[in-house]
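Sample pair:
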Amino acid sequence: MALNKQQTAHQAALNFELPQDVSAALEWIQLLPSGSALVGRDGRSWINSAPEGVVAEFVAGAKDMPLDWEHATELKAPKGEEAPAAGWFKELQVRDDGSVWGRIEWTDKGREAVVSKAYRYISPVFIYDTATSQIVKLTSVGLTNRPNLYLPALNREQHMEELSMNQTQFAALLAALGLAATATAEQAINHVTKMQGDLATALNHASQPPLDKFVPKADYDVVLAKATNAEQKLADQAKATLETAINAEIDTALKAGKITPATKDYHVAQCRMEGGLDRFKTFCQAAPTVAADSDLNNKKPGETDTALNAEEMEVCDAMGISVEDYRKANGL
């Protein structure tokens, strides 16, 4: 960031002569003149056509702006050296002519330095857009005796390292990186370095994926095919087992007279449904005998059945006759 480098820069300092009667005009100090071009002895110039934006930046910062000696805030503080304040600007305002003024609270040493005329100029440090030379923000103010701009705006003759992008571009860069607007250039660089490392790691994994997390597609297809075949075989086996169990239960129910041959297909279809076999077993346990086994398959032609069924036995008991008399009476 540059205070006064005689090339394109982002930050520069102007100088204004302090009022001679400091006792009467020491509370409000002009920091930026109105929108006319501010031309330095080195040929550079700036524009202050949007003073309200400068004040808005100060308000958004929500902190006092320091007045120091010889720009110690910009030159010494970043190196860890002391940068004591000569005063603090508590408020900024735009006057009718477009100039920017600041209300200051002096420290004892700062006031003494001005009253004794040890320092006669102030030098506001500002950020400006290199594309338009528009002043956008004040960052600090310094007491100085080395003016370099034509009055009333004098530029401190001090060379510093400059940045290669303006404040607007830097803000856009921070937003693109997902960083806070208050992030520093060092933080942005560290973030980019980390992103580069993450990208290198990702590219390495893409070309040589770890085998504990990834497998070649050909191997995956083979395993998938085997799993699909095994699953089909298990399904076929389970189906065959179910059919065997259904046939066994149906045959048992037919022999017990729980169902009739005419309803066999219906009960087989019901048993094939989910949970159907268990429901059929429960049904058979509670169902009455509706058709006793005639045992015709085991009889020879002309052979008669000498055994009475359950209903015939109940008739014998009810009438009090023997089985033999019942057979004779009915021609059995």
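The chain has ten helices and ten strands.
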